[in-house]
């Protein structure tokens, strides 16, 4: 009872301080809100919408079940999750935050995952997409395309390590299901499951497409709200000098691991929002690029409270516990920083030396493509966002009128 009352007081006080800060710093709040909105409608919405819609349709048509049957012999022994987890993992890496959480929650609602399996799966299927790592961070902030290689390797290897570690979470759960899954699955079995899943769904293609668009845009509207909110919170914390206070505490930790104190403010900012954290990290002077890469990797892996709030909101629609996901982000941050340190000389330094001493074409094609896609999305993203919202309004109005009649 005392704990509950204390929680109420803390939450009420925090919201009150936030409201007073908004009134006290109106210009800064509006500026931060516009920055968050700019990021959402130019980059986040147009990049995630196609993945969300296609994923919903793949689930409805039974393709995910088909892939799950084929990947069962790989995913079950390695991560102790069903084969459908392979689809979620791939889509999570391709589309970025918080696609893995949305797909995991969706499969949990379809009862293709148990509660423990869903909690395992969500811990390693939420990661930054290559477009953000190569285009925004390595080129946009550090002006160094080659840095994207080491950041991506550390990020995805760290995620893989988290997945292997989290296989021991809830190890007494669903032993009977795992024993049944030891048999080998054939292509015929996978095709039968695909057909049965489509028949069971039984929605016409038009309705399935409409439901996919509605669900995807509703999720993206929620994501946009969190991006704007945490952009404002981060700005207000800076105005109230709370970030500087927290940074003084982080400096003790940085000295312990022998990193420069100048990374304290970027780290604290990155705890709330990964974009600002990485931008500030790239601007730190009087330090080596390796140290900057380590901090950037840690920020990318932790993903920031903004992304974590998005994941928590999605998981709240199911019985999936958020706590394992949060703990996994801490471990992912540690692993990503460690992998950056271990791979720096054998990968980054050797790669740069090789390119300087030979006439070989550098493997920076993917980085250049990422930058090109990012610039194209900044130009065309707002138009796609507006058109998608108009389609959403039309579908929603049609659905409402149909329910009324």
From TrEMBL:
Residues 42-133, 220-316 form the Nucleoside transporter/FeoB GTPase Gate domain. Keywords: Membrane, Transmembrane, Transmembrane helix. The chain crosses the membrane at residues 47-71, 78-101, 121-142, 149-169, 213-233, 245-269, 289-314, 326-344, 380-397. Pfam families: Gate. NCBIfam families: spore_ylbJ. This is Sporulation integral membrane protein YlbJ. It comes from Bacillus yapensis. The lineage of its organism: Bacteria, Bacillati, Bacillota, Bacilli, Bacillales. The gene is ylbJ.
């Amino acid at each position: 009872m005392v704990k509950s009352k204390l929680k109420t007081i803390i939450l009420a006080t925090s919201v009150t301080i936030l409201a007073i800060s908004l009134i006290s710093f109106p210009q800064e709040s509006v500026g931060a809100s516009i920055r968050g909105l700019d990021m959402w409608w130019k980059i986040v919405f147009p990049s995630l919408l196609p993945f969300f819609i296609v994923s919903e349709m793949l689930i409805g048509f039974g393709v995910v079940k088909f892939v799950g049957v084929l990947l069962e012999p790989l995913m079950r022994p390695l991560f102790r999750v069903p084969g459908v987890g392979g689809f979620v993992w791939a889509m999570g890496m391709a589309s970025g935050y918080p696609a893995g959480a949305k797909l995991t929650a969706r499969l949990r609602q379809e009862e293709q995952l148990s509660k423990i399996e869903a909690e395992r799966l969500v811990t390693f299927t939420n990661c930054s997409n290559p477009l953000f790592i190569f285009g925004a961070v390595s080129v946009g902030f550090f002006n160094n395309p080659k840095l994207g290689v080491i950041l991506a390797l550390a990020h995805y290897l760290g995620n893989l390590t988290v997945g292997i570690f989290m296989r021991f979470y809830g190890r007494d759960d669903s032993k009977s299901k795992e024993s049944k899954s030891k048999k080998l699955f054939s292509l015929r079995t996978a095709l039968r499951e695909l057909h049965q899943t489509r028949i069971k769904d039984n929605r016409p293609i038009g309705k399935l497409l409409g439901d996919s668009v509605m669900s995807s845009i509703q999720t993206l509207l929620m994501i946009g709200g969190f991006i704007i909110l945490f952009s404002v919170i981060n700005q207000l914390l800076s105005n109230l000098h709370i970030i500087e206070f927290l940074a003084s505490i982080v400096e003790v930790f940085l000295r312990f691991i022998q990193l420069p104190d100048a990374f304290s403010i970027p780290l604290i900012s990155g705890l709330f929002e990964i974009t600002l954290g990485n931008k500030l990290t790239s601007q730190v002077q009087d330090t080596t690029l390796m140290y900057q890469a380590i901090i950037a990797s840690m920020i990318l892996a932790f993903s920031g409270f903004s992304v974590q709030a998005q994941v928590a909101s999605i998981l709240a629609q199911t019985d999936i516990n958020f706590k394992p996901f949060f703990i996994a982000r801490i471990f992912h941050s540690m692993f990503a920083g460690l992998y950056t340190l271990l791979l720096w000389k054998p990968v980054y330094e050797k790669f740069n030396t090789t390119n300087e001493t030979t006439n070989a074409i550098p493997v920076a094609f993917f980085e250049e493509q990422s930058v090109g896609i990012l610039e194209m999305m900044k130009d065309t993203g707002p138009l796609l966002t507006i058109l998608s919202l108009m389609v959403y309004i039309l579908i929603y109005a049609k659905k409402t009128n149909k329910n009324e009649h």
